[in-house]
Amino acid sequence: xxxxxxxxxxxxxxxxxxxxxxxxxxxxxxxxxxxxxxxxxxxxxxxxxxxxxxxxxxxxxxxxxxxxxxxxxxxxxxxxxxxxxxxxxxxxxxxxxxxxxxxxxxxxxxxxxxxxxxxxxxxxxxxxxxxxxxxxxxxxxxxxxxxxxxxxxxxxxxxxxxxxxxxxxxxxxxxxxxxxxxxxxxxxxxxxxxxxxxxxxxxxxxxxxxxxxxxxxxxxxxxxxxxxxxxxx
Length: 233
Description:
Strand order of the largest sheet: 1-3-2
CATH superfamily of the largest domain: Winged helix-like DNA-binding domain superfamily/Winged helix DNA-binding domain
Oligomer: single chain
Structural class: mainly alpha
CATH topology of the largest domain: Arc Repressor Mutant, subunit A
Radius of gyration: 30 Å
Number of strands: 6
Shape: elongated
Strand content: 5-15%
Distance between the termini: 109 Å
């Protein structure tokens, strides 16, 4: 391919299409551009996404990576007669949800939210599935490892970005709150209640201090009157 890339918008769209079709894994916009002589491929991707919107395959963006995938309404045609499903344990599901909503997060932080210890095997399962990755280390004493989700996680769950994660109300409405979990909601409510109680106590203490200061001069005056009756006269 010439260094200058495709000459026209149609040629560029075709080149982007070919590049994505031949790729072994999803590509970022920058990677596609580099393959095509640093051409600006933003408009070409938008055109192809619209072009394929009503076809048997769709052009999708997941975690800022682009790829072709089967149209959701046709997925059942390509399923095998016997699906091999990998079911996550309750613990793995909870850990995955915590990482997705709080990333990057350390193992200690995961345990603080769950209220129980998290085995290394649970994290290993999620990393083996390709949904969780090591995202570095926290710059604190001990430098604990921190974890985050992967583009494969977004792709598997049909999310363009983490902004598309369902909120608590949506989880309740869809019946998916368990096991993501009532305990998590209770923990959040307990934290909110504790914070409100602490603020109320602080406000009460401040008000009592103000009352004490306001009453102090009167108390001192009475003390002088009782101890020095002649002066008060």
